[in-house]
């Protein structure tokens, strides 16, 4: 049995009373593993058909499945093609409750490594604007890689603190996720560091930080908008008590009634300071009652009549004619139907890197931005080189030149290792030349460049399999 902090055990015993034995026994069970299908790439029905894994439905998550730990889906070509995201099952409840819609402005405030962001983007279907923010620079880069891997084109990845963002985006977002940094008691089965770092003082520090982040989120929400607050911890100080204080300080907010959900249990008013009955409408996932590690969730709604929303200024899009001509020529050569992208004019150049930013993104001068939108590629002298992210965004049927490698074959492994592709594969493209979209079982995974019958591998060096 794993070693739990003594004070944690005592506290949970005090809180749970008769329910304690069952709770503590759950630490003797194996942790459960989940993956979430990425609808930007594949439908869940199709994925079930082609999946080499033994999948079982997660009751509270439309795109979520349990898999067997020994199957290691993180090491499969489908993972590199962004067909799914590996995510702890209870964490999938957050976006279910958020219920994002195509066309909305959505903020994921504490977003790395990207579980909620990739889930939200799947629901948005490429329409609307997703700002995905992470305070720690190294974690923000991992988040950006996951946005790329899942082929997301309408997200901006930023590296800001919540206070700075709130000055920039007052009343701007329809929905916000605050998946707050917490003491991680729900991670104890899988994460030794969370067990070692846990102290009652750490719980208090987390609670103060959560209140600050949630207050900043409140500023950025439109009247009538929704925040989902969540943690992966059990302590009432970071859950019911944070929501209780938030509602007292923000009378323009209330807890939304999200009904009942399979596997989700009511919040505990008796663990708040005032016994606030409304807290019953928040949710808990318990590791002994549901097949998940544990979570707390609250859906908060801002009332409708909050005065006018500040008008935002738009960014200065790149107007460099030679760059735009270069990329437009490239898109016409690559794409069967380039019109939808050619109509877009929201180009931004970061050095020699060209991005197409979501049209709703406001002026971001002075902000720390890791990924300002869809990364189209690098502007070189008299030519344009497409990015890996653009390959993952595209679909096989959208391009003139493509090859398809079986996920079970040797060629895909060669490609993922960065080797040059020769023989039958390049011959299948006759004497053509140019950028070729590489697919695995029909799903885009990267680019190669065809010249003289040889396909030069453009799978990024940093991602290559050893
Ligand atoms: C629970 S994790 C987020 C997990 C993520 N939402 C996902 O689904 O993959 C909390 C995140 O908050 C970040 N964080 C830490 N301190 C913060 C602060 N003061 N303000 C905002 N975010 C913070 C952490 O770096 C961490 O990435």
Automatic annotation (TrEMBL):
GO molecular function, one term: RNA binding
Listed GO biological process terms: RNA methylation; RNA processing
This protein's record includes keyword S-adenosyl-L-methionine: yes
Keywords: Cytoplasm, Methyltransferase, RNA-binding, S-adenosyl-L-methionine, Transferase
UniProt binding sites for S-adenosyl-L-methionine: 110-116, 134, 161, 179
Active site: 232 (nucleophile)
Residue span(s) of domain SAM-dependent MTase RsmB/NOP-type: 23-303
Family: Belongs to the class I-like SAM-binding methyltransferase superfamily. RsmB/NOP family.
Protein name: RNA methyltransferase
Organism (species): Lacrimispora celerecrescens
């Amino acid at each position: 049995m794993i070693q739990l902090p003594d004070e944690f055990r005592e506290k949970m015993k005090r809180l749970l009373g008769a329910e304690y034995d069952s709770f503590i026994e759950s630490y003797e069970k194996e942790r459960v593993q989940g993956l979430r299908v990425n609808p930007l790439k594949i439908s869940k029905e199709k994925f079930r058909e082609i999946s080499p894994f033994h999948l079982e439905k997660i009751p509270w998550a439309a795109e979520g499945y349990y898999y067997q730990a020994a199957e290691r889906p993180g090491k499969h070509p489908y993972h590199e093609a962004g067909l799914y995201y590996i995510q702890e099952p209870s964490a999938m409840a957050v976006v279910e409750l958020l219920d994002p819609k195509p066309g909305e402005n959505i903020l994921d405030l504490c977003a790395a490594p990207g579980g909620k962001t990739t889930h939200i983007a799947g629901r948005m279907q490429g329409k609307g604007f997703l700002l995905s923010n992470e305070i720690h620079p190294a974690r923000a880069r991992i988040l950006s890689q996951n946005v790329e891997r899942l082929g997301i084109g309408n997200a901006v990845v930023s590296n800001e603190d919540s206070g700075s963002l709130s000055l920039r985006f007052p009343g701007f977002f329809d929905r916000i996720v605050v998946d707050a940094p917490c003491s991680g008691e729900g991670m104890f089965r899988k994460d030794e560091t969370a067990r070692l770092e846990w102290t009652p003082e750490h719980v208090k520090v987390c609670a103060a930080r959560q209140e600050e982040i949630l207050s900043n989120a409140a500023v950025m929400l439109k009247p009538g908008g929704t925040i989902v607050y969540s943690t992966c911890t059990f302590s009432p100080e970071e859950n019911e008590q944070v929501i209780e204080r938030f509602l007292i300080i923000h009378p323009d907010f209330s807890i939304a009634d999200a009904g009942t959900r399979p596997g989700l249990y009511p919040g505990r008013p008796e663990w708040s300071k005032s016994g606030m009955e409304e807290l019953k409408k928040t949710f808990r996932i318990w590791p002994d009652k549901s097949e998940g590690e544990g979570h707390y969730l609250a859906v908060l709604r801002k009332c409708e009549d909050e005065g006018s929303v500040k008008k935002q200024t738009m960014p200065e899009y790149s107007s460099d004619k030679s760059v735009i001509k270069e990329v437009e020529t490239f898109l016409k050569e690559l794409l069967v139907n380039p019109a939808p992208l050619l109509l877009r004019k929201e180009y931004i150049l970061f050095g020699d890197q060209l991005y197409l930013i979501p049209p709703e993104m406001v002026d971001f001068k002075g902000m720390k931005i890791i990924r300002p939108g869809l990364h189209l590629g690098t502007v070189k002298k008299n030519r344009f080189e497409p990015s890996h992210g653009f390959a993952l965004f595209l679909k096989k049927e959208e391009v003139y030149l493509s090859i398809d490698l079986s996920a079970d074959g040797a060629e895909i492994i060669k490609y993922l290792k960065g080797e040059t592709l020769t023989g039958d594969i390049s011959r299948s493209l006759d004497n053509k030349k140019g950028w070729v979209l590489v697919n695995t079982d029909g799903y885009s995974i990267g680019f190669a460049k065809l010249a003289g019958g040889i396909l030069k591998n453009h799978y990024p060096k940093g991602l290559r399999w050893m």
